[in-house]
Design goal:
By secondary structure, the chain is an all-alpha fold. The chain has helices at about 1-35, 45-95. The chain starts with a helix and ends with a helix. Heterohexamer. One of its GO terms (cellular component) is mitochondrial inner membrane.
């Protein structure tokens, strides 16, 4: 069972890392599209800076909530697996008596 948990944890870590990379790509796409309207200046103007700051903040909060939800589901799944395993052990010992 330990190897299975280890693989499960590695899978979750991989999914989290992949999601983080994808989130950064989406963040750049969304915030750039929403906030930057021209390339006439080298730097962002005041409105663009404010817009990108707010966009990034909102996006990061959203991403954090998704990650928390994935972790909650993972914990719930581990608890269910543990409960099933304990029930199987109890049945096994009950059948031996």
């Amino acid at each position: 069972m330990g190897a299975s948990n280890s693989k499960h944890e590695k899978d979750i870590a991989y999914i989290k890392e992949k999601n983080q990379v994808e989130s950064i790509i989406r963040l750049v796409d969304v915030c750039f599209d929403q906030c930057v309207n021209s390339f006439s200046r080298r730097d962002l103007n005041k409105r663009e800076k404010l817009c990108t700051t707010q966009c990034v903040k909102k996006f990061l909060e959203f991403t954090q909530r998704i990650e928390e939800r994935i972790e909650e589901q993972s914990i719930s799944e581990r608890q269910k697996m543990e409960t099933r395993r304990n029930e199987e052990i109890k049945k096994h010992f009950a059948n031996q008596n």
